[in-house]
Design brief:
Elements (H helix, E strand, L loop, with lengths): L1 H19 L7 H17 L9 H18 L10 H8 L4 H18 L5 H6 L20
Length: 142
C-alpha cells in the first residue's frame, strides 16, 4: 500500500520532469541530478521498513527505467536492457540504493540503546499463548 503511493508520486514527479526538461544530450547530467534530488527521495522515504517482494522490485525498477530510458535518448522500442542504460548513464540501480537504505536503517537500530522503542521491538517476545479454535462470539454478534 505504501509502495503504491510512493510509486504514484514518483511517476508524477518524473512525468513533470519529462514535460519540462525534454531529453537532449547536454541535459543528461542535469536530468540525472534533478531525478536524484526530486524524484528519488520521494520514492525512497521510509523504505527502510519495506518488505520488498519480486513484484514490487519489478515495479520500482520499471519506474526508474521509464525515466532513465528517455534521459539516455532512447524510446521503449529501441530494446535496450536496464543494465545497458544504467551503465551508459553511470548510475546505480534504485534497488541497490534501496538495499543500502535498509542496511543503514538496521545498523542505526543496532547502535541504539536498549531502552529506545525500535531496539526494544527487536528483542520483544510475546508471553502467553493464543486460544485454539475460532474466536469467541461477542455480545453484539449474537
Amino acid at each position: 500500500m505504501d509502495i503504491d503511493k510512493k510509486l504514484h508520486n514518483h511517476l508524477e514527479i518524473t512525468g513533470n520532469l519529462n514535460n519540462v526538461f525534454r531529453p537532449q544530450k547536454p541535459l543528461k547530467k542535469t536530468r540525472i541530478k534533478l531525478y536524484n534530488t526530486l524524484a528519488l527521495p520521494v520514492l525512497l522515504y521510509g523504505s527502510e521498513t519495506w518488505n520488498i517482494k519480486a513484484r514490487d522490485a519489478r515495479r520500482i525498477t520499471a519506474a526508474e527505467i521509464k525515466y532513465m530510458i528517455r534521459t539516455a535518448g532512447y524510446t521503449w522500442t529501441d530494446y535496450k536492457t536496464n543494465t545497458q542504460i544504467t551503465n551508459e548513464l553511470k548510475i546505480t540501480p534504485i534497488l541497490d540504493k534501496l538495499l543500502e537504505y535498509k542496511r543503514n536503517g538496521i545498523q542505526h537500530v543496532n547502535v541504539m540503546p536498549r531502552n529506545r522503542l525500535p531496539k526494544a521491538m527487536e528483542y520483544y517476545f510475546p508471553t502467553g499463548r493464543r486460544n485454539y479454535g475460532r474466536p469467541l462470539k461477542r455480545i453484539l454478534d449474537t
